[in-house]
Amino acid sequence: MLSICFRTLKIALTLTALLTAQLSQATIPEIAPGTAFKPLEPTRDHAMITQQIMNNLLRGHYEHQRLDDKLSSRVLDILLDDIDSTRSYLLAGDVKEFEQYRYSLDEALNRGDMRPAFIIFNRFQQRVSERLSFLLNELHSKAADYHFDTDERLDLDREKAPWATTSAELDDLWRKRLKNSILNLKMAGKEKDAIIELLSKRYQNQLNRVHQSQSEDAYQTFMNAVTRAFDPHTQYFSPRNTENFNINMSLSLQGIGAVLQTEDEHTKVVRLVPAGPAAKAGNLQPADKIIGVGQAEGDIVDVIGWRLDEVVELIRGPKSTTVRLEILPANSSGTDSKIISIVRDEVKLEEQSAQKDVIEVKDGDVTHKIGVIDIPTFYIDFQGRMENKPDYKSTTRDVTVLINELKEEGIDGLIIDLRNNGGGSLEEAITLTGLFIPQGPVVQVRSTHGRVEVLPDQDPSVLYDGPLTVLVNRLSASASEIFAGAIQDYGRGLIVGGQTFGKGTVQSLRPLRSGQLKITQAKFYRVSGDSTQHQGVIPDILFPSLFDKEKIGESALEEALPWDTIRPAEYRSNKGIAATLPALRQLHQTRIEHNPDFRFLREQKALITELRQQTQVSLNEKVREQERKANDDKRLKLENERRKAKGMPLLTSIDDEETDNAADAEKEDDKKPEEDDALLIEAGHILVDYMNIQTASLTAQREEK
Known about the structure:
The chain is 42% helix and 17% strand. It is of the alpha+beta class. The strands form six sheets. Strands 5, 6, 7, 8, 9 and 10 form a six-stranded antiparallel β-sheet that branches. Helix 6 (115-141) packs antiparallel against helix 8 (192-210), helix 6 (115-141) crosses helix 9 (215-228) and helix 15 (426-433) runs parallel beside helix 16 (479-489). Residues 620-678 are annotated as: Disordered. Keywords: Hydrolase, Protease, Serine protease, Signal.
């Protein structure tokens, strides 16, 4: 049986965010600024593991790539991007020196020769050590005399910046970065002495960690550049991360329920676990960056530059205790932080079960009852099924019960809510589809050897044949996309919401001499022949979305496998929905034109886009305060326009909104954010529109007869 889950680019790191095992942290000795980094050396094991990995990649990966100069060049580019994506450490002379390896890394990999990789890694670590030493010296000798009344500006986006040619250029860049850090803390209300103490600890901790690097760190960094040259979901697991993966697979989840990864020197939120504490609180979002961690009482600990497992160790804690996180919100300019609180809890699997609700949709003088089934993940109790337990849980079994209950309640239509559903059991996606269609194919799987297997629903019965809508968003992935794609291809229901994630590949784990290799070995295709990879499922009616497709989704991952097509499966599609789409879209646009929630979403998205396009930040305190106030005033104006249109009390400051949200998060009533409710209600209106069009069509046909 094939089972899939939504995974991220750096899965070996993200998995540690869900661990429950305690990590022993030895005391790290303090390194004096200016200390040279001690070069690391590859081991004999690395040579043998490399040959194992390359044998698996060249023979077993879905994309049959050759170990040649083209691959070698791509590995070098990926490696440089991984270690210094902001071009802030390496010098142009370093990069020029590394060019000698551009077309020879393939031969080195073939021999299991890790010396070029270690030369690059050691040079990078030495440059990081130099930068941190510069910051510490600058902090203690000059920072106290910094002035914030000049017209200096700091570039925030350096992905395409030229490599610095001299150390003096980097000194100027890092002086501005230090100045920016001090200004941020100053504007947050911290005193000068406290700022210098905090930053001293931050940079000293980072320097200590650099000098504690081990040969396995260098090896994993390089080998994951190699695997990423094949695709972003192929990953080398070191022995340590293999152990972490096995602990994660036990599904014993306790903490805040967030999947994290390291991005540059920050800890980034990749996704939230359905029904987890963070998802319930609603104050942490994908792409937010965690820069500090504190407990219910005491100071926030600065975690910039920390290893992910060390950050996770601070975030974890006993059930019912509170953790405070200082975050840089994804929907901001990236310089203003805020502190949020989340109560730790165990992620209970029963809370991830499908749930039902009924919403009332008014259409003139008529009120329609629309059933809603929220499916956070595609789950199945494999052990319970193997033991023939009569009450074992699965998505399809639970949804069957819920649909029957909704039918007894007299619903007029049904919405399947798959927002934020990152996937799960493929088998469940197939059997769930079978509740709405007659017997037939649901998904196609193409293996690395080109063989296509059609996976069908073999049950000819249909549990629900009434009006149906599937609601999706950018975080709907894998099994969710298979279900939504099948419903769309069969013309069985309307798909509304945001373009889905686009995770259309299948991975397997292969043991190595030391560690494991996760390798992409197959690709999903819809019955129409379209791949779900990269493109995902495009809804029949698109809703505005705050998710940035350049940061979230398969298309945001470098080296992602492309979208393509294969031969369609044999299936019968209902063309009725396609014929109604022009009218449905027009009715939808007319309705949301003056809808305060949709107008707020559109304008909020425009503001977020504007903030993200600010690639420079002023180091002048007065200018920075003016910019911050201007941004807060825009956010407050948008929120109050929405509140006024809905008859809600107005806010006097944007801080009032965050206080209200924090209070709402502490309530037992676990509702989705208000903007999500607006999307659900609109999905109900669209379904009612479809029902009206169908009724009018049937009436016209009868009159013709």
